[in-house]
Specification:
12 helices, globular, single chain, three-stranded mixed sheet
Length: 324
């Protein structure tokens, strides 16, 4: 562990220490068991979902192409955080270089912002499908979906790049303990011995103007969807229209609820909510959505469920034949 210095230091010369979940060190091994399970399910589920969408031509529709983008983002988010997290919990491998810490910070924020934009694109897809069904294929063409995907990546890159410059511009005095299990922007910024107001303001601005704006637009999309649905005279038709949105609504709740709990708790509940609860929730919002999203879409989306059954039926028959 690097010593504590009082004079200014070059952050590249200091080895930083991720503490895991402070206050729950004796439970690290036990906590690693469900975390490992969630990571394995997340990786397997999202890779399988991507494979299914790529190989099945019937799933080459805008809704499923956006879903493949979401699965890619989920896989990357879990992989950017879980391996180091599990190394801390299993092997007490807490050391990390400043460059590696900043890289992890960038990818976590980049993927989070991108995933938020993908959820907005999926809300737009449901809006067009329900409000303009006859124009769906002319509005959401393959080219349009591709452009939305590129715009998502470009937007996330330009929003998150300043985080790198903001942490490198700070003056550090040798503090090297990060009370977390992965590196994030404010966790690094709080190690500085100078003023971090710019970091705080930019972090809040990104949360409000990117993720916050995405949520507002998603709400507007669903308000217009509900307005269109309740103009349908048949209750059966209304239910059918709304059922196509159920998976997306579940994914939105799973993604945003823990993220915003963590965001608000850090800023307004610092003294009332124990620190280990902050860290546990922060860990869960990088593992739970990637784990649950493939399951939600697999269970609630008929086309995917049918393809999974069709794919595994021959394997199950072969297994049964081998048993008897």
């Amino acid at each position: 562990m690097a010593p504590f210095f009082h004079n200014h230091t070059n952050p590249q010369d200091v080895l930083y220490v991720l503490m895991g979940i402070p206050g729950l060190e004796v439970l690290h091994t036990w906590i690693s068991i469900p975390f490992s399970f969630m990571y394995i399910v997340a990786v397997a589920g999202n890779i399988f979902l991507i494979f299914l969408i790529i190989t099945e031509r019937s799933l080459h529709e805008p809704m499923y192409l956006f879903l493949s983008m979401l699965a890619s983002a989920d896989f990357l988010l879990a992989t950017a955080t879980a391996p180091k997290m599990l190394a801390i919990l299993w092997f007490h491998s807490m050391d990390i270089s400043f460059g590696s810490c900043v890289s992890q910070m960038f990818f976590i924020h980049f993927i989070f912002v991108a995933e938020s934009a993908i959820l907005l694109a999926m809300a737009f897809d449901r809006y067009v499908a329900i409000c303009y069904p006859l124009r769906y294929n002319t509005i959401l063409t393959s080219s349009a979906v591709r452009k939305i995907g590129i715009a998502t990546v470009v937007r996330s890159f330009f929003i998150c790049c300043p985080f790198i410059f903001l942490v490198y511009r700070l003056t550090y005095c040798g503090r090297n303990i990060i009370p977390h299990s992965y590196c994030e922007h404010m966790g690094i910024a709080r190690l500085a011995c100078g003023n971090i107001n710019v970091n705080i303001i930019y972090g809040l601005t990104v949360a409000l103007l990117s993720t916050g704006l995405d949520i507002v637009l998603i709400i507007i999309s669903y308000t217009m969807i509900l307005h269109a649905v309740f103009q349908i005279p048949s209750w059966a038709a209304r239910f059918k229209a709304l059922s196509t949105c159920s998976s997306h609504i579940c994914v939105i709740l799973v993604f945003y609820t823990p993220a915003f709990f963590s965001f608000l708790a850090h800023r307004f509940g610092g003294k009332t909510i124990p620190h280990h609860i902050h860290i546990l929730v922060a860990n869960l919002y990088v593992l739970v959505p990637p784990m649950l999203n493939p399951i939600i879409y697999g269970v609630k989306t008929k086309q995917i469920k049918d393809r999974v059954i069709l794919l595994f039926s021959p394997l199950m028959l072969l297994r049964l034949k081998s048993l008897f």
